[in-house]
């Protein structure tokens, strides 16, 4: 990605003046190939040799992206900070640079981390609100989940910076709000630290116990020895004896389980297919407003036709697909589902009416992603267990009807268990 970005930026610039070292840089980058670390090294050498390079700003932007790709703290602090100060509002860059700054002992770095964390949180909160208001989109539950995770992370960074700046009372409500949005190990541990610093040892013990109860997640891994020492130390401060952490841990497991279940239920209400891991767990919406739970089709052979309004081959395939449907119209155990992959759902119903295909088509609602449909048209046959029995990417016009019919018959004859 960095190599492609550099090539694009270079092409967009006017020809470099003689003596600028661009020919030398081109050779170094060509030799680096697709290696991000070698690309970054070549760019840094160029800047050191030609500090007045007319493309310095663009090179530093590429180095900032390389810092993210490489998770290189030095590059993040040198070039990532410059990119943000120059106006970059890349959420990924803000996240990585803020995290790197928080490890610094310098007050100015903590102040900068706080500023970046606030900017990041504000952008993510705006994105979160837009996602909640937007019309239905496939995978929207997962997208909201990811946005809330990133928002909680940004707010946890904000709380950490505030605490490290000695602003404990400001840090606590930010950390608590982040926990309510998306509970993470990182947040629980941070709340424990802030609460302990505030002298609220019982609450600190509860937060540390919640970190253990969560187990492993993207933000932290269990460390049985350290976790036990941490809990015992807080229990000593809170209750006067180290063994008092056991009840706190049991209660934390109950709290965390309830929070996680409530959050799953909220995301499931927002997107019925949130968390779906197989075909049977999907519910498809449609052009007519009806919803179809695919679990209701278990025991039947299901033929899925993935198509889109803009797809010319889909239109060519449609009459052939209808011929197959006619061959099995007397079979109640064979179901044909037309599944639109259009991003603009408003275009589907008018298209169906214009083409005379009938009013009903389902929307993929993330099913295409689960089944890894990478091209259309794609015809897919599911057996009676809901498992993929056959997949036809594209079609051979003079053979499609017989080929699909044969695969349906084979699926009907396959063992149901």
Short précis:
By secondary structure, this protein is an alpha/beta fold. The protein is built from 17 helices and seven strands. It folds into two domains: 2-261, Serine Threonine Protein Phosphatase 5, Tetratricopeptide repeat (Alpha Horseshoe), CATH 1.25.40; 279-413, Glutaredoxin.
Structural key phrases:
417 residues; 17 helices; two-stranded antiparallel ribbon; disordered N terminus; Serine Threonine Protein Phosphatase 5, Tetratricopeptide repeat; Glutaredoxin; five-stranded mixed β-sheet; alpha/beta; 2 domains
CATH architecture annotation name of the largest domain: Alpha Horseshoe
Q: Which percent range fits the helix content?
A: 55-70%
Fourth CATH level, the homologous superfamily of the largest domain: Tetratricopeptide repeat domain
The CATH topology of the largest domain comes to: Serine Threonine Protein Phosphatase 5, Tetratricopeptide repeat
Strand content: 5-15%
How many runs of DSSP E, i.e. beta strands? Answer: 7
Radius of gyration: 28 Å
Instruction: State the CATH class of the largest domain.
Output: Mainly Alpha
What is the topology?
Elements: H1 2-12, H2 22-32, H3 36-49, H4 56-70, H5 73-85, H6 91-102, H7 107-133, H8 140-164, H9 168-181, H10 185-197, H11 201-214, H12 224-239, H13 245-270, E1 283-284, E2 292-293, E3 301-307, H14 312-327, E4 334-340, H15 348-355, E5 362-363, H16 367-370, E6 378-382, E7 388-393, H17 400-413
Parallel strand pairs: 3-4, 4-5
Antiparallel strand pairs: 1-2, 3-6, 6-7
Helix pairs in contact: 1-4, 2-3, 3-4, 4-5, 5-6, 6-7, 6-8, 7-8, 8-9, 8-10, 9-10, 10-11, 11-12, 11-13, 14-17
């Amino acid at each position: 990605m960095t190599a492609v970005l550099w090539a694009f930026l270079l092409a967009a610039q006017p020809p470099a003046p003689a003596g600028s070292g661009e020919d030398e840089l081109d050779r170094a980058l060509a030799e680096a190939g697709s290696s991000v670390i070698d690309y970054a090294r070549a760019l840094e050498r160029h800047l050191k040799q030609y500090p007045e390079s007319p493309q310095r700003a663009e090179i530093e932007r590429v180095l900032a992206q390389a810092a993210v790709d490489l998770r290189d703290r030095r590059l993040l602090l040198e070039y990532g900070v410059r990119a943000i100060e120059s106006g970059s509002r890349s959420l990924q860059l803000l996240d990585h640079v803020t995290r790197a700054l928080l490890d610094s002992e310098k007050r100015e770095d903590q102040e900068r981390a706080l500023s970046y964390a606030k900017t990041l949180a504000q952008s993510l909160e705006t994105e979160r609100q837009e996602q909640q208001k937007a019309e239905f989109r496939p995978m929207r539950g997962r997208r909201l989940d990811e946005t809330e995770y990133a928002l909680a992370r940004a707010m946890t960074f904000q709380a950490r910076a505030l605490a490290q700046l000695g602003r404990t009372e400001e840090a606590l409500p930010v950390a608590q709000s982040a926990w309510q949005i998306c509970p993470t190990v990182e947040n629980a541990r941070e709340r424990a630290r802030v609460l302990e610093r505030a002298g609220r040892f019982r609450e600190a013990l509860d937060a540390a116990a919640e970190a253990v109860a969560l187990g492993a997640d993207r933000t932290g891994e269990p460390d049985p020895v350290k976790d036990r020492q941490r809990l015992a130390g807080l229990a000593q401060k809170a209750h006067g004896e180290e063994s008092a952490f056991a009840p706190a841990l049991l209660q934390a497991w109950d709290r965390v389980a309830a929070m996680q279940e409530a959050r799953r239920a909220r995301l499931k209400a927002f997107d019925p297919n949130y968390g779906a891991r197989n075909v049977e767990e999907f519910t498809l919406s449609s052009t007519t407003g009806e919803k179809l739970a695919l679990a209701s089709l278990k025991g039947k052979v299901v033929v899925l036709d993935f198509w889109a309004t803009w797809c010319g081959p889909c239109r060519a395939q449609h009459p052939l697909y209808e011929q197959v449907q006619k061959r099995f119209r007397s079979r109640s155990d064979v179901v044909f589902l037309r599944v639109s992959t259009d991003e603009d759902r408003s275009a589907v119903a008018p298209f169906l009416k214009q083409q005379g295909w009938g009013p009903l088509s389902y929307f993929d609602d993330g099913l295409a992603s689960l089944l890894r449909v990478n091209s259309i048209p794609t015809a897919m046959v599911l057996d009676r267990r809901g498992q993929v029995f056959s997949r036809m990417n594209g079609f051979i016009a003079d053979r499609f009807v017989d080929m699909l019919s044969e695969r349906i018959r084979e699926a009907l004859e396959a063992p149901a268990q």
